[in-house]
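ok trying again, last paste got cut off:
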Amino acid sequence: MSIHMTSKNISITEDVYVLLSKIKLEGESFSEAIKRLAARRSLEKNAGLWAHLSDEEMEAFGKSLRELGNMAR
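nice, full thing came through this time. structure:
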């Protein structure tokens, strides 16, 4: 018995790709990283998750998240 998983292509900006590349864990696919990051967690579990990112990278990430939020409305 085989399980067929469908896939979807999404478009992300270069800066978001770079951020996801830095955030994803070793051996983790982008899909797995997005699923992990999208999971609802307590603030305590997320503390320090992006500590290695520069202020500029965090600002770009925040801007991208705001844009995604605006598109979802």
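cool. Residues 14-42+51-72 form one domain. The two ends are 41 Å apart (CA to CA).
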